[in-house]
């Protein structure tokens, strides 16, 4: 089943993201963790893809395993900025061979010592979307950034490129994580005002340890609202209390989004079945 088929039902949806191991040595433990999340039978899942394509085989293995074992749609991430067209075409062929229908089309992060833009075959996700559309048969998702892409000169430029992705054939969008729902609502208003009607799925990350917060802020450049900073200040030196508060905060975000008419929410589970299970339990009656 394609993700767009699920979104078209109008039912409230909850989905989870997992990631592949960095090396083959960690494959079995990562597989078990992803299966722990898959066993919750979310509406769909997604499997990320490491920078440079080094984990692409693991991404497809985990995607295929989850679909076969649990019968749920799974998005396989596909990045392009560090790839050649030949590599991308090969990945699309492999996905077709495995019966993978859903693809998250991303530019991806540049690897260290990457060539300059004029020497790369891809610089934008839209170029990858063009090729996925031409290849045919895929349900195509894309990313968006409520606080603006960290490399974009302005939010207006970021929104312009977002519209280009949709016009190229991106069928739904998932946001980068955010911790202030008002930022998402403001972003959604601007996107709809541009005439983009594509489904937009908020991405929520439950913060369960202080290092995770520090790492995430360094990578995304997102803002921490006052309410979350209070949690960090009060419970940051108590791991168990901070984890509980972080899950509660994410749950509050999710409930507010559902209450304001948002249909589908994507949770960045960080391969933690216990966190995913608690989030799902906290909204179990809401998503019935």
Write the layout of secondary structure elements.
Elements: H1 3-7, E1 13-18, H2 27-38, E2 45-47, H3 56-70, E3 74-79, H4 85-97, E4 102-106, H5 125-135, E5 139-144, H6 155-168, E6 172-175, H7 181-193, E7 200-201, E8 203-204, H8 210-220, H9 226-235, H10 239-259, E9 264-268, H11 273-282
Parallel strand pairs: 1-2, 1-9, 2-3, 3-4, 4-5, 5-6, 6-7, 8-9
Helix pairs in contact: 2-3, 2-11, 5-6, 9-10, 10-11
Task: Describe, in plain words, how this protein is organized in 3D.
- By secondary structure, the chain is an alpha/beta fold.
- It has one domain: TIM Barrel (Alpha-Beta Barrel), CATH 3.20.20.220.
- Helix content is 47%, strand content 14%.
- It is built from 11 helices and 9 strands.
- It has a 9-stranded parallel sheet.
- α2 runs parallel beside α3 and α9 (226-235) runs antiparallel to α10 (239-259).
- The chain is globular and about 50 Å long.
- 43% of the residues are buried.
Please name the defining characteristics of this protein.
9 strands, TIM Barrel, 14% strand, 11 helices, nine-stranded parallel beta sheet, 288 residues
Rounded mean pLDDT is 93
Tell me the number of structural domains: 1
Low-pLDDT runs of 5+ residues are none
**How would a crystallographer describe the biggest sheet?**
9 strands, parallel
- Fraction in beta strands: 5-15%
Got a strand count?
Answer: 9
Judged by helices, strands and strand pairing, the structural class is: alpha/beta
> Treating each run of at least 4 consecutive H or I residues as one helix, how many helices?
11
Strand order in the largest sheet: 7-6-5-4-3-2-1-9-8
In CATH, the topology is named TIM Barrel
User: Based on the structure, what is the oligomeric state of the protein chains?
Assistant: single chain
CA-based gyration radius: 18 Å
